[in-house]
Amino acid sequence: MEFDLTEGTVHNEGCDLRYWTTTGKDEAGPLITFIPGGNGHGCQFFPLMAALSKTANFTCATFDRRQMSGSQLPGGVESNKLLNPPQQARDVRAVIRAAGFERSIIFGSSSGGILAFQFAHDFPEAATHVIAHEAPTFMLLPDASELFEWFLHLTHLHKNQGLEAAAAEFESKLVGYDDEGVPPVVKPDARNRVNFWEYEIPILGGGYTPNLWRIRANGTSVGVMQSVRCREAFFARAPAEQAKILGCPVWVVPGHHQGFEAETEEFLPSFLEALDALERAKVAAARG
After folding, report:
1. How do residues 211-258 score in pLDDT, each as one tens digit?
2. d(CA 227, CA 154)
3. Residues 15-43, mean pLDDT to the nearest whole number
4. How far apart are CA 113 and CA 34, in angstroms?
5. Between the chain's N and C termini, which has fewer beta carbons within 10 Å?
6. 6-287: which CATH topology?
7. Domain segments of the chain: what residues?
8. Helix (H, G, I), strand (E, B), or coil: what is residue 101?
């Protein structure tokens, strides 16, 4: 994977956030900011950023989320705190500004999709378009009560039997990764799994969901994605419920929960078509 990638660090609210940027094939265009999910590391988006740098005129940015990989707090893991979605949205804004922009297209996957919604809620003026890829807002689903109790079970499992036991049951829901011919994805820093289970699952497993009705009222340009290989997984069913509230398009895209990384070539056309559809809708709405 060869493409021009610039690495930097931006300090925000007590944390040095490691981020990367790349420009399009001809010149710097509109910014797309990619928000990682529970694995926390920005390098999962490098394949998609590389493909975009060769095919389209976008500036791309991604980063390691707070307390993940290269974005550790000064005191190390001992100083980690519970996931704060509004603070993470402010981290996204800091990365956007460090990249030299005030507005950005936002793409967030998995819990990064929840943070994309949070950014749209808190900074609507800074969100050009927002795409949430399988954001696991399970409390919107018909089986929300069952899923809430399952996350409680995972929390008790983590406390009483340890991370590996809880992670094994959770990861059994990540269908599609073992499909024939699907390449593996990059494994995150070992610290990321610890942070996810100790400091993020207590919030995400409690069903945290930004106010989607407010995002719709703000008129934010938004769309949601579900992946073909995820079949009936709860995070693949959530986008349809999000779309009902947001009044937005829902796209079925190639790959599994990290299809943008594992099957980038197949994912890219769907991604570009979604961006084009949002832009055309926005232009049409502006014309009245």
Report:
1. 999 999 999 999 999 999 999 999 999 999 999 999 999 999 999 999
2. 24
3. 92
4. 10
5. C
6. Rossmann fold (3.40.50)
7. 6-287
8. coil
Question: How far apart (Å, rounded) are the C-alpha atoms in residues 112 and 118?
Answer: 9
The DSSP string of 209-221 is ---HHHHHHTT--
Tokens (6 digits) for 26: 């001809």
Residues in the chain: 288
Tokens 């956007």, residue located: 96
Q: What does the block give as tokens for 206?
A: 């409690």
- The phi-psi region of residue 40 (left if phi > 0; otherwise alpha if psi is between -120 and 50; otherwise beta) is left
- Match 């990861």 to its residue by tokens: 171
Mean pLDDT of 144-157: 98
pLDDT value for 2:
67
Q: At what angle do helices 111-122 and 85-98 cross, to 10 degrees?
A: 80
Residues 6+ positions from 29 with CB-CB distance below 8 Å: 23, 56, 57, 58, 59
Q: Torsions phi, psi of 35, nearest 5?
A: -105, 120
